[in-house]
Amino acid sequence: MEHLKSNHTxxxxxxxxxxxxxxxxxxxxxxxxxxxxxxTIIGNTLIMLTVASDPQLRTPMYFLLGNLSFLDxxxxxxxxxxxxxxxxIEKRSIVFEACMAQLFFLHFVGASEMLLLNVMAYDRxxxxxxxxxxxxxxxxxxxxxxxxxSWTAGFIHSTVQTILTMRLPYCGxxxxxxxxxDVPPVIKLACTDIYIIELLMISNSGLITTCCFVxxxxxxxxxxxxxxxxxxxxxxxxxxxxxxxxxxxxxAPCIFIYARPFCIFSVDKLVSVLYNVITPLLxxxxxxxxxxxxxMAMRKLRKKEVFSDGKLVM
Length: 314
Description:
- It is a single chain.
- The protein has a single domain (13-312), classed as Rhopdopsin 7-helix transmembrane proteins (Up-down Bundle), CATH 1.20.1070.10.
- Helices cover 72% and strands 4% of the residues.
- It has helices at residues 23-53, 60-87, 96-129, 134-137, 140-166, 183-187, 195-226, 230-258, 268-288, 292-306; strands spanning 13-16, 93-95, 175-176, 307-308, 311-312.
- Helix 1 runs antiparallel to helix 2 (60-87), helix 2 packs antiparallel against helix 3 (96-129) and helix 7 (195-226) runs antiparallel to helix 8.
């Protein structure tokens, strides 16, 4: 054990909670989560390959969709493999450094995706409300800078969260009341007053999450209000509805977890499952696979892989 300057003995590992109390239900959930994770990997990888391989999809909107698929893939990979492993073992321990790394990448990818969704909303606003100026405004160069800015801001946000969490003294208990390491359940284990830290965390994660969600809803509402013709509004509503579905299901759990004082509720584990395992699967199911251009490009990609110069590729 390492001794801190405060004369406390630092905890070297944490023990994660189990989602289900019985072995039989653990196995059943393992199968369900494994299928969900496999579908997430296959669906999002297929979208990235499709966007990268089809010249007709080399537009700002599909460039952003490809980046969203990559972030969804990363988000699920931060927690899902560890969760699947914990279903099969009795001692669900994680060393302190690995816990902090999981926490860092969770907030890094999550914050980057929130900001990317705002960029995508801006892209749709320009495309629908200013179609004549769209090619000059949303060019590939600007999109690349906006994506890079989303990643950079996510990195800064996560670095602040992780440093604040790591600097707290942990001397026991070491039972994390969740199935992965996140800020709210981890800082509850600190053997010091965390009131100020909680306020900093809420102002960081909670305020950013809530503001991003409000901006997104406002942008889509503005799009619908700016369109006068019934036909145009119907098309815009069709586009925005799928976007808003993903946005709501992504942001609602985050707001519930991070925009309130860090008191622990029993429903937090269920909300965490929705945010980390189910939500990354929604992009291929709702956001992209409803798009006719993407489905057509996927058919072309499949034919290209199966046939080469008129011969079946083995």
